[in-house]
# Entry
Amino acid sequence: MLVNTPNGLYCPAGDFHVDPRRGVERALITHAHSDHARSGSQGYWCAQPGLGVLRERLKPSAAITGVAYGQSLRFKDVQISFHPAGHVLGSAQIRLEHRGEVWVVSGDYKLQPDPTCTPFEPVRCHTFITECTFGLPIYQWPTPESVFHAIRSWWQSNSQAARTSVLHAYSLGKAQRLLSGLDPAQGPLLVHGSILPALRAYRAEGICLPEVERLSEERLRTAAGRALVITPPQADEPASLVGPGGVSRAFASGWMHVRGGRQGRGSDTGFVLSDHADWPGLTQAIQATNARRILVTHGSTRPLVRWLREKGLDAASLEAPARVVEEGSAPS
Ligand SMILES: [Zn+2]
Ligand SMILES: [Zn+2]
# Structure
């Protein structure tokens, strides 16, 4: 039902692409991260809650149709619907049905609880195309509660030493998820300007997030080392970022699970918080679809393919459409 083409996954029977790599006529988008949502297509379809963040990503003139989770839509002979993927706001798995045959494209997903998006919903299908960013048994995430507890304690001890806390996180998804677990009563929450558009889109969808202030030289000075700053990894930083007691940097990502991930980014601390499924999450999600055929993409696919074959499933790797941008590629 779907074939891998130079433009990405294409459905001949419905004449549309899923997360195309370049501009096409009809693009069904799983979510607004840059490795899935690219500009230049004539028409876009996405899950309704993701409309705002997708609009921020694409040109203002882009023709985007938001479709409610679970609502059916027809493209020629193919029935399609979007189902929650639990990855970031509006992220979706896309279900395709053609003459009784059902495929689901997972997009990126996670099973961990996240108050900033609709939880992952298993969808039964014959063929499941799954991401596998963290497709090794070593990846097993701690609970978000324990990670947030560690982040708050880190911030507190930095504050006591008048040391600015700088948390590096991707501007769409991770930044908002982090904010949802932080309280401005503990100190000023300062966010880099590039995070604000997505933050507005989250609030417009009714996601409850704490009050934040825009990161600025002046605000950093008055905060005197008590602020927690959230900034994307490559963003420019004010010179006054360093508080009276210095600065402590941390990165919040699944890559923090491995030692090299921390060293590669020059952070003092790493918090293991991922918007992708860990190994138990992947295997659980795949089994919940009841699919007999699994196509694996996005990451090192071989160990997962082998594991699935040992379970008697028809599994293969699908040539990776592109490198993962939003979680960073493997530490270099
Ligand atoms: Zn993503
Ligand atoms: Zn991705």
